[in-house]
Write a structure and sequence with these properties.
globular; mainly alpha; Serine/threonine-protein kinase TOR-like; DDR_Repair_Kinase; transferase; 6 helices; PIK-rel_kinase_FAT; kinase
Length: 136
């Protein structure tokens, strides 16, 4: 006999978000992100922020994108990475720096965008090195 376990309402939303992002269904993803963003805890926000930022970018929702991006790591290695530090969440990825570069270009702050692009390149180099070391 098989027992089917149903997720509590809202418990499977991150998986739904990943599927919607993979399918490039930006409007649905954006709506779902808006629904779950406010009640989400800091850890959950960090998990969904890259998908939410991507959806907001594709929908042209710049203020919403800025809110999501504010939760991501800004690539500044000089900052102490703690859970309570919103500017540098320590997610260890290039997402935050890349999305900040996009927002800076949108705002016409090209020097700032250049700095974020450089940070993103450094983060990507680190991520790539880690992947290569795992493969060998």
């Amino acid at each position: 006999m098989f027992v089917l376990e149903i997720c509590e309402p809202g418990a499977c939303f991150a998986g739904r978000m990943r599927c919607l992002a993979a399918l490039a269904r930006w409007e649905e993803l954006s709506d779902l992100c808006k629904e779950y963003w406010t009640p989400a805890d800091a850890v959950t926000r960090l998990e969904i922020a890259p998908m939410a930022a991507n959806a907001a970018w594709n929908m042209g929702e710049w203020d919403q994108m800025a809110e999501y991006v504010s939760r991501l790591d800004d690539g500044d290695e000089t900052k102490l990475r703690t859970a309570g530090n919103n500017a540098s969440s320590g997610d260890g990825s290039s997402n935050g720096t890349f999305y900040r570069a996009v927002l800076s270009v949108r705002r016409g702050k090209y020097d700032e965008a250049r700095e974020y692009v450089e940070r993103a390149r450094k983060c990507l180099a680190t991520e790539l090195a880690a992947l290569v070391s795992v493969l060998h």
